[in-house]
Queue: 2 jobs
Job 1
Amino acid sequence: MPTASAGFLLFSAAVAIACNLSRHPLWRGWVLLAANLAYLATVSTDPSAFLPFAAFLAIGYAAILASGRRRSGKVLGTLVMALTLGFCWLKKYWFLSGLGFISSPYVTIGLSYIFFRVMHLVIDAQSHREAGRLSFLSYLNYTLNFTALVAGPIQRYEDFLKTPPPIDLCIAGRAAERIVIGLFKVLVVAALLSTVQTQATADLLAHHDGPDRLKSGLVAIAGYPIYLYFNFSGYMDIVIGVARFIGMELPENFNRPFSSVNFIEFWGRYHMTLSNWLRDYVYTPLLRVLMTRFPKPGRDPFLATLAFFVTFFLIGIWHGPTAIFATYGVLLAVGISGDKLYQTALLKLWGRRKYRALAEDPVYRAVCRGLTFTWYAVSMLCFWADSDEASRILGALGPGGIAAVFLLLLVAATAALTVTETLRAAALDAGWKGRPIMLSRYTRTVWSVVLAFLCVSVAMLMHSPAPDIVYKTF
Protein backbone atom coordinates (compact mmCIF):
# COMPACT_ATOMS: atom_id res chain seq x y z
CA MET A 1 0.00 0.00 0.00
CA PRO A 2 1.96 3.04 -1.22
CA THR A 3 2.00 5.84 1.34
CA ALA A 4 1.13 8.48 -1.27
CA SER A 5 -1.95 6.56 -2.45
CA ALA A 6 -5.64 7.18 -1.86
CA GLY A 7 -5.86 3.71 -0.30
CA PHE A 8 -3.36 4.59 2.43
CA LEU A 9 -5.09 7.90 3.18
CA LEU A 10 -8.52 6.23 3.39
CA PHE A 11 -7.11 3.49 5.61
CA SER A 12 -5.51 6.13 7.85
CA ALA A 13 -8.76 8.10 8.02
CA ALA A 14 -10.65 5.01 9.18
CA VAL A 15 -8.02 4.35 11.86
CA ALA A 16 -8.16 7.99 13.00
CA ILE A 17 -11.96 7.88 13.34
CA ALA A 18 -11.82 4.63 15.31
CA CYS A 19 -9.03 5.90 17.60
CA ASN A 20 -10.88 9.12 18.37
CA LEU A 21 -14.10 7.35 19.36
CA SER A 22 -12.60 6.97 22.82
CA ARG A 23 -9.46 8.26 24.53
CA HIS A 24 -9.25 5.23 26.82
CA PRO A 25 -5.70 3.81 26.48
CA LEU A 26 -6.90 0.21 26.17
CA TRP A 27 -9.33 1.07 23.38
CA ARG A 28 -6.68 3.00 21.49
CA GLY A 29 -4.17 0.21 22.03
CA TRP A 30 -6.37 -2.48 20.50
CA VAL A 31 -7.47 -0.24 17.63
CA LEU A 32 -3.84 0.55 16.78
CA LEU A 33 -2.87 -3.11 16.98
CA ALA A 34 -5.69 -4.05 14.60
CA ALA A 35 -4.58 -1.26 12.23
CA ASN A 36 -0.93 -2.30 12.38
CA LEU A 37 -1.75 -5.95 11.65
CA ALA A 38 -4.14 -4.94 8.86
CA TYR A 39 -1.40 -2.85 7.28
CA LEU A 40 1.05 -5.76 7.49
CA ALA A 41 -1.54 -8.00 5.84
CA THR A 42 -1.29 -5.82 2.72
CA VAL A 43 2.39 -6.75 2.40
CA SER A 44 1.84 -10.50 1.91
CA THR A 45 -1.11 -12.88 1.81
CA ASP A 46 1.06 -15.85 2.85
CA PRO A 47 0.97 -16.26 6.67
CA SER A 48 4.17 -18.34 6.65
CA ALA A 49 6.06 -15.38 5.16
CA PHE A 50 5.66 -13.59 8.51
CA LEU A 51 7.17 -16.36 10.67
CA PRO A 52 10.82 -15.09 10.70
CA PHE A 53 9.49 -11.55 11.21
CA ALA A 54 7.34 -12.70 14.16
CA ALA A 55 10.23 -14.69 15.61
CA PHE A 56 12.47 -11.60 15.61
CA LEU A 57 9.74 -9.60 17.38
CA ALA A 58 9.27 -12.33 20.00
CA ILE A 59 13.01 -12.66 20.63
CA GLY A 60 13.27 -8.87 20.87
CA TYR A 61 10.56 -8.73 23.54
CA ALA A 62 12.24 -11.53 25.50
CA ALA A 63 15.55 -9.65 25.27
CA ILE A 64 13.94 -6.48 26.66
CA LEU A 65 12.51 -8.38 29.64
CA ALA A 66 15.83 -10.14 30.24
CA SER A 67 17.73 -6.84 30.10
CA GLY A 68 15.36 -5.29 32.66
CA ARG A 69 15.75 -8.21 35.07
CA ARG A 70 19.51 -8.80 34.75
CA ARG A 71 21.19 -5.40 34.73
CA SER A 72 24.80 -6.09 33.91
CA GLY A 73 27.19 -5.18 31.12
CA LYS A 74 27.76 -8.81 30.15
CA VAL A 75 24.05 -9.53 29.80
CA LEU A 76 23.51 -6.36 27.78
CA GLY A 77 26.48 -7.09 25.51
CA THR A 78 25.26 -10.63 24.85
CA LEU A 79 21.72 -9.47 24.04
CA VAL A 80 22.92 -6.67 21.74
CA MET A 81 25.24 -9.02 19.88
CA ALA A 82 22.57 -11.71 19.50
CA LEU A 83 19.96 -9.26 18.19
CA THR A 84 22.48 -7.71 15.79
CA LEU A 85 23.49 -11.07 14.38
CA GLY A 86 19.85 -12.13 14.08
CA PHE A 87 18.99 -8.94 12.20
CA CYS A 88 21.97 -9.28 9.85
CA TRP A 89 21.12 -12.94 9.20
CA LEU A 90 17.48 -12.18 8.36
CA LYS A 91 18.60 -9.32 6.09
CA LYS A 92 21.11 -11.70 4.42
CA TYR A 93 24.29 -9.71 4.93
CA TRP A 94 27.14 -10.94 2.78
CA PHE A 95 29.51 -11.66 5.69
CA LEU A 96 27.07 -14.26 7.11
CA SER A 97 26.57 -16.15 3.86
CA GLY A 98 28.56 -19.09 5.22
CA LEU A 99 25.81 -19.77 7.78
CA GLY A 100 23.19 -20.28 5.07
CA PHE A 101 19.99 -18.28 4.72
CA ILE A 102 16.29 -19.10 4.63
CA SER A 103 15.58 -19.95 1.00
CA SER A 104 11.82 -19.38 0.96
CA PRO A 105 10.61 -15.75 0.65
CA TYR A 106 9.66 -13.98 3.86
CA VAL A 107 8.68 -10.46 4.96
CA THR A 108 11.42 -8.05 6.05
CA ILE A 109 9.61 -4.75 5.47
CA GLY A 110 10.27 -2.36 8.34
CA LEU A 111 12.73 -4.76 9.99
CA SER A 112 15.57 -2.22 9.87
CA TYR A 113 13.54 0.29 11.88
CA ILE A 114 12.10 -2.36 14.21
CA PHE A 115 15.71 -3.32 14.97
CA PHE A 116 16.47 0.22 16.18
CA ARG A 117 13.33 0.36 18.33
CA VAL A 118 14.01 -3.02 19.93
CA MET A 119 17.67 -2.20 20.54
CA HIS A 120 16.70 1.12 22.12
CA LEU A 121 14.40 -0.69 24.56
CA VAL A 122 16.95 -3.40 25.37
CA ILE A 123 19.63 -0.82 26.19
CA ASP A 124 17.32 1.50 28.13
CA ALA A 125 15.87 -1.40 30.15
CA GLN A 126 19.20 -1.48 31.99
CA SER A 127 18.48 1.89 33.59
CA HIS A 128 14.77 2.64 33.01
CA ARG A 129 12.34 0.30 34.74
CA GLU A 130 9.40 1.25 32.52
CA ALA A 131 11.33 0.11 29.43
CA GLY A 132 11.90 -3.31 30.97
CA ARG A 133 8.27 -3.80 32.05
CA LEU A 134 6.32 -2.71 28.99
CA SER A 135 3.26 -4.75 28.07
CA PHE A 136 3.27 -6.92 24.97
CA LEU A 137 0.46 -4.81 23.49
CA SER A 138 2.48 -1.59 23.88
CA TYR A 139 5.54 -3.34 22.52
CA LEU A 140 3.74 -4.48 19.37
CA ASN A 141 2.15 -1.08 18.76
CA TYR A 142 5.48 0.68 19.26
CA THR A 143 7.48 -1.60 16.97
CA LEU A 144 4.76 -2.12 14.32
CA ASN A 145 3.34 1.42 14.20
CA PHE A 146 2.10 1.48 10.59
CA THR A 147 2.74 5.20 10.17
CA ALA A 148 6.46 4.76 10.84
CA LEU A 149 7.03 1.09 10.01
CA VAL A 150 8.43 1.34 6.49
CA ALA A 151 11.05 4.08 6.85
CA GLY A 152 10.72 5.73 10.22
CA PRO A 153 11.06 8.20 11.73
CA ILE A 154 12.73 6.38 14.63
CA GLN A 155 10.61 7.38 17.60
CA ARG A 156 11.77 6.74 21.17
CA TYR A 157 9.45 4.70 23.38
CA GLU A 158 9.02 7.49 25.95
CA ASP A 159 7.84 9.80 23.16
CA PHE A 160 5.51 7.12 21.79
CA LEU A 161 3.79 6.97 25.19
CA LYS A 162 3.08 10.71 25.28
CA THR A 163 -0.48 11.76 24.49
CA PRO A 164 -0.67 15.05 22.57
CA PRO A 165 -3.50 17.55 23.16
CA PRO A 166 -6.88 16.60 21.64
CA ILE A 167 -7.15 17.53 17.97
CA ASP A 168 -8.96 20.77 17.17
CA LEU A 169 -9.58 22.70 13.97
CA CYS A 170 -6.21 24.46 14.10
CA ILE A 171 -4.25 21.24 14.71
CA ALA A 172 -6.26 19.43 12.02
CA GLY A 173 -5.50 22.22 9.55
CA ARG A 174 -1.76 22.01 10.17
CA ALA A 175 -1.82 18.21 9.90
CA ALA A 176 -3.78 18.36 6.62
CA GLU A 177 -1.37 20.99 5.28
CA ARG A 178 1.54 18.69 6.13
CA ILE A 179 -0.07 15.77 4.26
CA VAL A 180 -0.71 17.91 1.18
CA ILE A 181 2.89 19.15 1.11
CA GLY A 182 4.12 15.57 1.43
CA LEU A 183 1.89 14.37 -1.40
CA PHE A 184 3.15 17.18 -3.64
CA LYS A 185 6.76 16.28 -2.88
CA VAL A 186 6.23 12.60 -3.66
CA LEU A 187 3.70 12.66 -6.51
CA VAL A 188 4.98 15.69 -8.40
CA VAL A 189 8.51 16.76 -7.53
CA ALA A 190 10.08 13.39 -6.73
CA ALA A 191 8.35 11.69 -9.65
CA LEU A 192 9.69 14.31 -12.07
CA LEU A 193 13.20 14.16 -10.62
CA SER A 194 13.18 10.36 -10.82
CA THR A 195 12.35 10.47 -14.53
CA VAL A 196 15.09 13.02 -15.23
CA GLN A 197 17.71 11.14 -13.19
CA THR A 198 16.85 7.75 -14.70
CA GLN A 199 17.05 9.15 -18.24
CA ALA A 200 20.40 10.83 -17.49
CA THR A 201 21.81 7.54 -16.20
CA ALA A 202 20.63 5.72 -19.35
CA ASP A 203 22.19 8.42 -21.55
CA LEU A 204 25.48 8.17 -19.67
CA LEU A 205 25.63 4.39 -20.08
CA ALA A 206 24.90 4.81 -23.79
CA HIS A 207 28.50 6.07 -24.06
CA HIS A 208 27.80 9.53 -25.41
CA ASP A 209 31.03 11.47 -25.92
CA GLY A 210 32.20 14.93 -24.89
CA PRO A 211 29.92 17.45 -23.19
CA ASP A 212 26.87 15.17 -23.39
CA ARG A 213 28.61 12.53 -21.31
CA LEU A 214 29.62 15.07 -18.64
CA LYS A 215 26.14 16.58 -18.59
CA SER A 216 24.52 13.16 -18.17
CA GLY A 217 26.97 12.24 -15.42
CA LEU A 218 26.35 15.52 -13.63
CA VAL A 219 22.54 15.15 -13.76
CA ALA A 220 22.62 11.48 -12.77
CA ILE A 221 24.88 11.96 -9.76
CA ALA A 222 23.42 15.27 -8.58
CA GLY A 223 19.81 14.35 -9.34
CA TYR A 224 19.51 11.28 -7.14
CA PRO A 225 20.12 12.87 -3.70
CA ILE A 226 17.65 15.65 -4.54
CA TYR A 227 15.09 13.06 -5.70
CA LEU A 228 15.66 10.98 -2.56
CA TYR A 229 15.22 14.03 -0.34
CA PHE A 230 11.84 14.92 -1.84
CA ASN A 231 10.72 11.28 -1.81
CA PHE A 232 11.87 10.63 1.77
CA SER A 233 10.91 13.97 3.31
CA GLY A 234 7.58 13.86 1.46
CA TYR A 235 6.86 10.48 3.03
CA MET A 236 7.77 11.96 6.44
CA ASP A 237 5.38 14.87 5.91
CA ILE A 238 2.54 12.46 5.07
CA VAL A 239 3.02 10.14 8.04
CA ILE A 240 3.62 12.97 10.53
CA GLY A 241 0.33 14.53 9.43
CA VAL A 242 -1.52 11.20 9.48
CA ALA A 243 -0.16 10.30 12.92
CA ARG A 244 -1.40 13.59 14.35
CA PHE A 245 -4.97 12.76 13.29
CA ILE A 246 -4.60 9.38 15.03
CA GLY A 247 -3.37 11.04 18.22
CA MET A 248 0.40 10.60 17.95
CA GLU A 249 3.26 13.01 17.39
CA LEU A 250 6.10 11.60 15.32
CA PRO A 251 9.51 13.32 15.54
CA GLU A 252 10.84 15.48 12.73
CA ASN A 253 13.37 13.82 10.44
CA PHE A 254 14.57 16.70 8.23
CA ASN A 255 15.55 20.32 8.77
CA ARG A 256 16.71 21.82 5.45
CA PRO A 257 19.79 19.56 5.17
CA PHE A 258 21.14 21.10 1.95
CA SER A 259 21.67 24.41 3.73
CA SER A 260 24.38 22.73 5.83
CA VAL A 261 27.92 24.11 5.53
CA ASN A 262 29.70 20.92 6.63
CA PHE A 263 29.11 17.19 6.82
CA ILE A 264 28.66 17.17 10.60
CA GLU A 265 25.91 19.75 10.36
CA PHE A 266 24.38 17.90 7.40
CA TRP A 267 23.84 14.74 9.44
CA GLY A 268 22.31 16.84 12.20
CA ARG A 269 19.66 17.92 9.69
CA TYR A 270 19.22 14.85 7.46
CA HIS A 271 17.49 11.67 8.69
CA MET A 272 17.78 13.22 12.13
CA THR A 273 16.18 10.39 14.08
CA LEU A 274 18.75 7.94 12.67
CA SER A 275 21.64 10.32 13.37
CA ASN A 276 20.39 11.04 16.90
CA TRP A 277 19.89 7.33 17.65
CA LEU A 278 23.43 6.48 16.57
CA ARG A 279 24.79 9.50 18.44
CA ASP A 280 23.18 8.32 21.68
CA TYR A 281 23.76 4.58 21.36
CA VAL A 282 26.98 4.28 19.32
CA TYR A 283 28.98 7.52 19.03
CA THR A 284 28.71 8.78 22.63
CA PRO A 285 29.32 5.41 24.36
CA LEU A 286 32.23 4.65 22.00
CA LEU A 287 33.79 8.08 22.57
CA ARG A 288 33.40 7.66 26.33
CA VAL A 289 35.22 4.31 26.19
CA LEU A 290 38.00 5.74 24.01
CA MET A 291 38.49 8.73 26.31
CA THR A 292 38.71 6.41 29.31
CA ARG A 293 41.17 4.14 27.52
CA PHE A 294 43.31 7.00 26.14
CA PRO A 295 43.02 9.82 28.71
CA LYS A 296 45.98 11.94 27.59
CA PRO A 297 45.16 15.68 27.08
CA GLY A 298 44.75 16.84 23.51
CA ARG A 299 43.56 13.50 22.16
CA ASP A 300 39.83 14.15 22.49
CA PRO A 301 39.30 15.66 19.00
CA PHE A 302 41.12 12.73 17.37
CA LEU A 303 39.18 10.20 19.43
CA ALA A 304 35.98 11.98 18.36
CA THR A 305 37.15 11.63 14.75
CA LEU A 306 37.58 7.88 15.21
CA ALA A 307 34.17 7.59 16.86
CA PHE A 308 32.63 9.52 13.95
CA PHE A 309 34.28 7.16 11.46
CA VAL A 310 32.99 4.01 13.15
CA THR A 311 29.48 5.43 13.60
CA PHE A 312 29.05 6.50 9.99
CA PHE A 313 30.58 3.35 8.63
CA LEU A 314 27.83 1.53 10.53
CA ILE A 315 25.25 3.86 8.98
CA GLY A 316 26.47 2.78 5.57
CA ILE A 317 26.33 -0.97 6.12
CA TRP A 318 22.98 -0.68 7.92
CA HIS A 319 21.46 0.57 4.66
CA GLY A 320 21.98 -2.68 2.81
CA PRO A 321 23.35 -6.24 3.03
CA THR A 322 25.67 -6.14 -0.02
CA ALA A 323 29.34 -5.19 -0.05
CA ILE A 324 28.80 -1.91 -1.93
CA PHE A 325 27.08 -0.50 1.14
CA ALA A 326 30.35 -0.98 3.00
CA THR A 327 31.90 1.35 0.42
CA TYR A 328 29.01 3.75 1.02
CA GLY A 329 29.77 3.60 4.73
CA VAL A 330 33.47 4.33 4.14
CA LEU A 331 32.63 7.37 1.99
CA LEU A 332 30.24 8.72 4.64
CA ALA A 333 32.81 8.05 7.35
CA VAL A 334 35.61 9.74 5.39
CA GLY A 335 33.38 12.77 4.81
CA ILE A 336 32.44 13.34 8.43
CA SER A 337 35.75 12.30 10.04
CA GLY A 338 37.64 14.39 7.47
CA ASP A 339 35.41 17.32 8.37
CA LYS A 340 36.21 16.84 12.06
CA LEU A 341 39.96 16.63 11.38
CA TYR A 342 39.81 19.76 9.24
CA GLN A 343 38.04 21.72 11.97
CA THR A 344 40.52 20.46 14.56
CA ALA A 345 43.52 21.44 12.40
CA LEU A 346 42.18 24.94 11.69
CA LEU A 347 41.37 25.57 15.34
CA LYS A 348 44.87 24.51 16.34
CA LEU A 349 46.53 26.51 13.57
CA TRP A 350 44.49 29.73 13.69
CA GLY A 351 42.73 29.71 17.04
CA ARG A 352 39.03 30.10 17.76
CA ARG A 353 38.79 33.77 16.86
CA LYS A 354 40.19 33.49 13.33
CA TYR A 355 38.37 30.21 12.70
CA ARG A 356 35.05 31.78 13.77
CA ALA A 357 35.65 34.73 11.44
CA LEU A 358 36.37 32.37 8.55
CA ALA A 359 33.30 30.25 9.31
CA GLU A 360 31.08 33.34 9.13
CA ASP A 361 32.45 34.55 5.78
CA PRO A 362 29.62 34.31 3.16
CA VAL A 363 31.86 33.12 0.31
CA TYR A 364 33.50 30.49 2.47
CA ARG A 365 30.10 29.28 3.68
CA ALA A 366 28.80 29.07 0.11
CA VAL A 367 31.76 26.95 -1.04
CA CYS A 368 31.49 24.71 2.04
CA ARG A 369 27.77 24.25 1.37
CA GLY A 370 28.51 23.22 -2.22
CA LEU A 371 31.31 20.86 -1.16
CA THR A 372 29.08 19.20 1.44
CA PHE A 373 26.39 18.49 -1.17
CA THR A 374 28.99 17.32 -3.69
CA TRP A 375 30.57 14.79 -1.35
CA TYR A 376 27.17 13.50 -0.30
CA ALA A 377 26.01 13.18 -3.93
CA VAL A 378 29.15 11.26 -4.90
CA SER A 379 28.79 8.97 -1.87
CA MET A 380 25.18 8.27 -2.83
CA LEU A 381 26.29 6.54 -6.03
CA CYS A 382 26.86 3.47 -3.83
CA PHE A 383 23.33 3.85 -2.47
CA TRP A 384 21.34 3.81 -5.72
CA ALA A 385 23.60 1.76 -8.02
CA ASP A 386 24.70 -1.81 -7.40
CA SER A 387 28.35 -2.81 -7.87
CA ASP A 388 27.96 -3.61 -11.56
CA GLU A 389 26.06 -0.43 -12.44
CA ALA A 390 28.40 1.76 -10.39
CA SER A 391 31.40 0.24 -12.22
CA ARG A 392 29.77 0.90 -15.60
CA ILE A 393 28.94 4.51 -14.65
CA LEU A 394 32.49 5.22 -13.47
CA GLY A 395 33.88 3.42 -16.53
CA ALA A 396 31.70 5.48 -18.86
CA LEU A 397 33.00 8.70 -17.28
CA GLY A 398 36.64 7.66 -17.04
CA PRO A 399 39.17 9.24 -14.63
CA GLY A 400 39.09 12.61 -16.38
CA GLY A 401 35.30 12.61 -16.56
CA ILE A 402 34.99 11.75 -12.86
CA ALA A 403 37.23 14.66 -11.89
CA ALA A 404 35.37 17.01 -14.27
CA VAL A 405 31.95 15.97 -12.94
CA PHE A 406 33.13 16.47 -9.36
CA LEU A 407 34.36 19.99 -10.12
CA LEU A 408 31.27 20.88 -12.17
CA LEU A 409 29.03 19.57 -9.40
CA LEU A 410 30.92 21.61 -6.80
CA VAL A 411 30.52 24.81 -8.83
CA ALA A 412 26.87 24.14 -9.71
CA ALA A 413 25.93 23.17 -6.15
CA THR A 414 27.68 26.20 -4.68
CA ALA A 415 25.86 28.57 -7.04
CA ALA A 416 22.45 26.85 -6.87
CA LEU A 417 22.39 26.53 -3.09
CA THR A 418 23.53 30.13 -2.64
CA VAL A 419 20.69 31.34 -4.86
CA THR A 420 18.23 29.08 -3.02
CA GLU A 421 19.28 30.37 0.40
CA THR A 422 19.11 33.98 -0.79
CA LEU A 423 15.64 33.60 -2.31
CA ARG A 424 14.34 31.79 0.77
CA ALA A 425 15.60 34.53 3.08
CA ALA A 426 14.05 37.20 0.87
CA ALA A 427 10.70 35.39 0.76
CA LEU A 428 10.59 35.02 4.54
CA ASP A 429 11.54 38.67 5.04
CA ALA A 430 8.75 39.91 2.76
CA GLY A 431 5.98 41.35 4.88
CA TRP A 432 2.83 43.41 5.00
CA LYS A 433 2.12 45.73 7.91
CA GLY A 434 4.89 44.14 9.91
CA ARG A 435 3.71 40.57 9.34
CA PRO A 436 5.51 37.99 7.15
CA ILE A 437 3.47 37.23 4.04
CA MET A 438 4.78 33.70 3.47
CA LEU A 439 3.92 32.60 7.02
CA SER A 440 0.42 34.04 6.92
CA ARG A 441 -2.33 31.46 7.39
CA TYR A 442 -4.09 32.90 4.33
CA THR A 443 -0.99 32.43 2.14
CA ARG A 444 -0.47 28.92 3.50
CA THR A 445 -4.13 28.03 2.89
CA VAL A 446 -4.02 29.23 -0.73
CA TRP A 447 -0.71 27.45 -1.26
CA SER A 448 -2.09 24.20 0.19
CA VAL A 449 -5.17 24.37 -2.07
CA VAL A 450 -2.95 24.85 -5.13
CA LEU A 451 -0.72 21.94 -4.13
CA ALA A 452 -3.76 19.74 -3.45
CA PHE A 453 -5.15 20.55 -6.90
CA LEU A 454 -1.83 19.65 -8.52
CA CYS A 455 -1.62 16.38 -6.57
CA VAL A 456 -5.16 15.36 -7.57
CA SER A 457 -4.47 16.26 -11.19
CA VAL A 458 -1.28 14.23 -11.29
CA ALA A 459 -2.94 11.26 -9.55
CA MET A 460 -5.77 11.29 -12.11
CA LEU A 461 -3.35 11.47 -15.04
CA MET A 462 -0.99 8.76 -13.75
CA HIS A 463 -1.24 5.37 -15.42
CA SER A 464 0.82 3.62 -12.75
CA PRO A 465 0.57 3.15 -8.97
CA ALA A 466 1.65 6.03 -6.76
CA PRO A 467 5.40 5.98 -6.07
CA ASP A 468 6.35 4.51 -2.74
CA ILE A 469 9.10 5.44 -0.32
CA VAL A 470 12.60 4.57 -1.56
CA TYR A 471 13.62 3.24 1.86
CA LYS A 472 10.95 0.55 1.62
CA THR A 473 13.46 -1.62 -0.24
CA PHE A 474 16.10 -1.49 2.48
Job 2
Amino acid sequence: MAFLKTILIILLVYYLLKILARWFGPKLFSYAAKKTEERFRENFGGYANQHRNEEEHMGDVIIDKKPAKKYSESKKVGEYIEFEELD
Protein backbone atom coordinates (compact mmCIF):
# COMPACT_ATOMS: atom_id res chain seq x y z
CA MET A 1 0.00 0.00 0.00
CA ALA A 2 2.89 2.36 0.79
CA PHE A 3 4.32 1.76 -2.69
CA LEU A 4 1.02 2.82 -4.27
CA LYS A 5 0.89 6.00 -2.14
CA THR A 6 4.45 6.87 -3.18
CA ILE A 7 3.62 6.47 -6.86
CA LEU A 8 0.45 8.58 -6.50
CA ILE A 9 2.37 11.34 -4.67
CA ILE A 10 5.05 11.36 -7.38
CA LEU A 11 2.41 11.60 -10.12
CA LEU A 12 0.56 14.34 -8.24
CA VAL A 13 3.75 16.40 -7.82
CA TYR A 14 4.65 15.85 -11.48
CA TYR A 15 1.28 17.07 -12.78
CA LEU A 16 1.23 19.96 -10.29
CA LEU A 17 4.64 21.15 -11.49
CA LYS A 18 3.50 20.76 -15.08
CA ILE A 19 0.43 22.97 -14.47
CA LEU A 20 2.46 25.58 -12.58
CA ALA A 21 5.00 25.68 -15.41
CA ARG A 22 2.21 26.41 -17.89
CA TRP A 23 0.87 29.24 -15.76
CA PHE A 24 4.09 30.87 -14.62
CA GLY A 25 6.48 29.83 -17.39
CA PRO A 26 5.64 32.65 -19.82
CA LYS A 27 5.77 35.26 -17.03
CA LEU A 28 9.11 33.96 -15.84
CA PHE A 29 10.46 33.93 -19.39
CA SER A 30 9.33 37.50 -20.08
CA TYR A 31 10.90 38.66 -16.80
CA ALA A 32 14.20 37.02 -17.73
CA ALA A 33 14.05 38.58 -21.21
CA LYS A 34 13.48 42.05 -19.74
CA LYS A 35 16.41 41.68 -17.34
CA THR A 36 18.66 40.46 -20.15
CA GLU A 37 17.64 43.41 -22.31
CA GLU A 38 18.38 45.85 -19.47
CA ARG A 39 21.85 44.36 -18.96
CA PHE A 40 22.50 44.49 -22.69
CA ARG A 41 21.53 48.15 -22.81
CA GLU A 42 23.75 48.94 -19.80
CA ASN A 43 26.75 47.16 -21.29
CA PHE A 44 26.46 48.54 -24.80
CA GLY A 45 24.93 51.93 -24.04
CA GLY A 46 28.42 53.45 -23.78
CA TYR A 47 29.19 52.37 -27.31
CA ALA A 48 26.24 54.33 -28.71
CA ASN A 49 27.32 57.47 -26.82
CA GLN A 50 30.89 57.06 -28.06
CA HIS A 51 29.63 56.72 -31.62
CA ARG A 52 27.64 59.96 -31.26
CA ASN A 53 30.75 61.80 -30.04
CA GLU A 54 32.63 60.63 -33.11
CA GLU A 55 29.90 62.09 -35.35
CA GLU A 56 30.25 65.48 -33.64
CA HIS A 57 33.93 65.65 -34.61
CA MET A 58 33.31 64.77 -38.21
CA GLY A 59 36.02 66.11 -40.50
CA ASP A 60 38.86 65.77 -37.99
CA VAL A 61 41.72 63.65 -39.26
CA ILE A 62 43.35 61.32 -36.78
CA ILE A 63 46.34 59.26 -37.78
CA ASP A 64 47.29 56.36 -35.58
CA LYS A 65 50.71 54.98 -36.36
CA LYS A 66 51.37 51.31 -36.03
CA PRO A 67 54.49 50.31 -34.13
CA ALA A 68 57.41 49.38 -36.32
CA LYS A 69 57.65 45.66 -36.86
CA LYS A 70 60.93 44.01 -36.15
CA TYR A 71 61.71 41.54 -38.87
CA SER A 72 64.08 38.84 -37.84
CA GLU A 73 66.08 36.75 -40.22
CA SER A 74 64.49 33.46 -41.01
CA LYS A 75 66.24 30.58 -39.34
CA LYS A 76 67.39 27.78 -41.54
CA VAL A 77 65.77 24.59 -40.43
CA GLY A 78 67.71 22.15 -42.57
CA GLU A 79 68.93 21.31 -46.04
CA TYR A 80 66.70 21.21 -49.08
CA ILE A 81 66.60 17.76 -50.64
CA GLU A 82 65.33 17.34 -54.17
CA PHE A 83 63.57 14.06 -54.84
CA GLU A 84 63.23 12.41 -58.21
CA GLU A 85 60.29 10.25 -59.21
CA LEU A 86 61.04 6.70 -60.18
CA ASP A 87 58.94 4.96 -62.81
